[in-house]
Design goal:
By secondary structure, this protein is α/β, with parallel strands linked by helices. It is built from eight helices and eight strands.
């Protein structure tokens, strides 16, 4: 899919990975609806981006992905403003093992909520144009991150959901590809605050340092380039793209075909 003239919705768009995704979409000619709970950061980013890309290429909408009402309103406003939706990036996420219920609600349920809204607006069976849904997962969704068990669970769940809904979309003829992005550690506020967010696993903080030393730290631009690959490559559906300092590779999973049944 070429991005020029397309419309994207990005959650958690005001800072970090979401900001980088927004910028790379704009650079490639897309229009972007920026959704975030941080009004000040969102409006500040809008001021900067409007000077660079013009006032008609973007829209900021205050939106908590835990709220059905706010999410639906944001999608409707995007459609009214830009005429439709071609790309959805479920990027909003937190890491806080102390308030783990919120983490499940935002990281997993928020992405599911967004995906189902995306299907309603984008499916070719309901008058949509088709397109791509991308879920920001993590390397923690492919292998356990001992310092953050619930964060690990949300990202494992998100990858499983992504793969299942991708297959369901293909079987149903929705015309929508669904993929997951799995970066390692990324230089964002979320990464910087990990030691203070471990809850009952604070005693494992040293293990976090060892993992960072092992994997290194990506910048947000490197992650956004992975997003661009998943969005533009029409062959990618149900994929989990690992983004590490060593490069980008696709995860492989056990086959559940009939020939491999026990």
């Amino acid at each position: 899919m070429a991005l020029n003239g397309k419309t994207a919705v990005v959650t958690g768009a005001a800072m970090g990975i979401g900001k980088a995704i927004t910028e790379i979409f704009l650079k490639n000619g897309a229009k972007v609806a920026l959704l975030d709970v941080n009004k000040a950061a969102g409006e500040s980013l809008m001021e900067v981006l409007r000077k660079q890309y013009g006032p008609d290429q973007m829209l900021f909408l205050l939106c908590n992905v835990e709220s059905d009402e706010q999410f639906k309103a944001a999608f409707q406003k995007t459609v009214e403003t830009f005429g439709g939706i071609d790309i959805l990036c479920n990027n909003a996420g937190i890491l806080n093992e102390t308030t783990w219920e919120n983490m499940v609600s935002i990281n997993l349920m928020g992405a599911i909520r967004g995906t189902y809204l995306g299907l309603e607006h984008m499916s070719k069976l309901s008058g949509g144009r088709g397109g791509v849904i991308l879920n920001t997962a993590s390397m923690a969704g492919l292998g356990p991150l001992p310092i953050c068990p619930v964060y690990t669970a949300t990202k494992h769940g998100l990858i499983g959901f992504t793969r299942a809904i991708a297959a369901a979309s293909e079987a149903s003829g929705y015309g929508i590809r669904v993929n997951a992005l799995c970066p390692s550690f990324v230089q964002t506020d979320l990464f910087s605050n990990i030691p203070s967010k471990l809850g009952r696993f604070t005693h494992l903080a040293n293990a976090a340092d060892q993992l960072v030393e092992r994997f290194g730290v990506l910048n947000v631009t490197e992650v956004a380039e992975g997003v661009l690959e998943l969005v533009t490559d029409e062959a990618k559906n149900g994929e989990a793209l690992m983004v590490q300092l060593t490069g980008r590779t696709y995860a492989t999973f056990p086959s559940l075909s009939s020939s491999n049944k026990p």
